[in-house]
Amino acid sequence: MGAIEAPDLSYAALAPLLFVFGAACVGVLVEAFTPRSVRHPVQVTIALVGTIGAFVATLLLAGTEEVTAAGALAVDGPALFLQGTIAILGALSVLLFSERALDPARSAFVAAAAVPAGSVRDRELATSERVQTEVYPLATFAIGGMMLFTAANDLLLMFVALEVLSLPLYLLSGLARRRRLLSQEAAVKYFLLGAFASAFFLYGLALVYGATGSVRLSDVRVAVVTEGGSALMVIGLGLLVVGLMFKASVAPFHSWTPDVYQGAPTAVTAFMAAATKVAAFGAVLRLLYVAFGTADWTWRPLVYALAIASMVVGAVLGLTQTDVKRMLAYSSIAHAGFLLTGVIGLGPDGTGYGLAATMFYLVTYGLTTLGAFGLLTLVRDGDGEATHLSQWAGLAQRSPLVAALMSFFLLALAGIPLTSGFTGKFAVFRAAIEAGAWPLVVTALVASAIAAFFYLRVVVLMYFSDPAPDGPTVGVPGLPTTIVLAVTAAATLVLGVLPGAVLELAESAAVFVG
Amino acid sequence: MTITNYLVLAAILFTIGAVGVLVRRNAIVVFMCIELMLNSVNLTLITFARSTGTVEGQVIALFVMVVAAAEVVIGLAIIMSIYRTRRSASVDDVNLLKY
């Protein structure tokens, strides 16, 4: 037996990942070696340097197409495009995490997570200005996992990345300072269901390995072409899709979404709703396209059904919600369905407009959702954020600016022209029609119309109702949240009016290698 | 013994685990059922490694064990924190979030 050869690693192509994981490791060390008083600014700076550095690295790498790390990582157009999207969404989320002006206790995160909720010590800490800085390394690890997820060219690496992004998110969703029981409950639910879904992913991996003898996506593709699809492989693919669709909160694997989105701290919800969706769809596209692109009869009916289920469940159940966070959770389920419409638009063998359209939709959806959740952190009552729909009545009289901005984000989520939501929807629907899936597009249009009702209901409530006498107050955000709201609102407008540049970028990036 | 026997055993274990997750009420037991599912996957992987004559399956099984260990740390921490507040690890009791 010969000596084991070290795999070739192209460090230049890995730069975005190295930036983020480097920042996360430094963050862990800072947590151990820096005095508490300076930790918060230091941690925020490190997390921002890591994510923005990764974003710049993806820009510099644009046009790279190579497979590295012994074939396990594919650095190509879609990977870099989505990594850049995740990095920028991650940087904005870190800014939301670092907001200190809104909560009287100066942070949205619990001071000491290990103290039982409701105990004497917990009540003491609830009003103290001590802040939890572990959230920044945790978030940075999650961002790194997401970026790895979109570039994984190997089912094993995909699984590892799935866990690297999930485990920090389970913890983050349990760290709210207020309503701690809800937050802990969200963490338990997310954890148990998330681990359940990853077990399915793993079983699918094992079956595909058994059917094809490899977990490398390119080898799976070769095996699919030469041997055709065996029953074992199709079942394996189905289980892999279940695991991924869970992360993307596609119905019928969505049951965790409303609970976790409602219970988690709002900044974390914003991060999960925006960045996790991008990462999960990046992996879905790569798996279906690189490994099973030549045998699309295996997945197309499945994805078709999931898209319809997700749009209908998201739009119809969204109507019945009375909590703004839960309503946005159902909106995210409906949007997962619209994204799957774009996935259906993937043509055979690299043709078709579906890949570029889906990637563009992910950018528009991610930025708008981040903005909408960011805005939720401003409207507060004595017990934290006021998310009940009735508390939003007449908000326009209290704060015209917040009401106008929220209306704008909601109209974008509904897909009204001159917002990014419209251009995104137009792109994915066009892709699906070009692929001949017009029944799907008709369903999507009906679902959009139903969903528009519950978005507009909030707008009507804010403008045409009288404010409640003991209604919520609208906080004045500090610099971080202001930056996030300005960037997301500007992006929502610009991508709606002048989407050309980003659309072209998405189209030129829409080529997989591997 | 043929290879199929091992695969069937693994599939049965996986099903027991999945059904356990759905019907058991104690968060710790639910978690143990998930671990059972992961271990049945390991058995499947090693069987396939043998039948296809590659070592990848064995290596993946090692990865799965490491990830499962990391998951245990996070999972027990979360379950502990909620147990210390509520004095219960039943998943029926975590019912504040609904509709």
From TrEMBL, chain B:
Subcellular location as annotated: Cell membrane; Membrane
Topology of the protein relative to the lipid bilayer: Multi-pass membrane protein
Keywords, in A-Z order: Cell membrane, Membrane, NAD, Oxidoreductase, Quinone, Translocase, Transmembrane, Transmembrane helix, Transport, Ubiquinone
Source organism superkingdom: Bacteria
Protein's UniProt name: NADH-quinone oxidoreductase subunit K
Assigned GO CC terms: NADH dehydrogenase complex; plasma membrane
Similarity section: Belongs to the complex I subunit 4L family.
Gene from which the chain derives: nuoK
EC numbers, comma separated: 7.1.1.-
Transmembrane regions listed in the UniProt entry: 6-23, 28-48, 60-83
HAMAP family: NDH1_NuoK (MF_01456)
Self-association state and partner proteins as the record states: NDH-1 is composed of 14 different subunits. Subunits NuoA, H, J, K, L, M, N constitute the membrane sector of the complex.
Annotated catalysed reactions: a quinone + NADH + 5 H(+)(in) = a quinol + NAD(+) + 4 H(+)(out)
Physiological role: NDH-1 shuttles electrons from NADH, via FMN and iron-sulfur (Fe-S) centers, to quinones in the respiratory chain. The immediate electron acceptor for the enzyme in this species is believed to be a menaquinone. Couples the redox reaction to proton translocation (for every two electrons transferred, four hydrogen ions are translocated across the cytoplasmic membrane), and thus conserves the redox energy in a proton gradient.
Species for this entry: Modestobacter caceresii
An annotated GO BP: ATP synthesis coupled electron transport
Enzyme superclass (EC): translocase
InterPro entries named in the record: NADH_UbQ_OxRdtase_chain4L/K (IPR001133), NUOK/Mnh_C1-like (IPR039428)
GO MF assignments: NADH dehydrogenase (quinone) (non-electrogenic) activity; quinone binding
Organism ancestry: Bacteria, Bacillati, Actinomycetota, Actinomycetes, Geodermatophilales
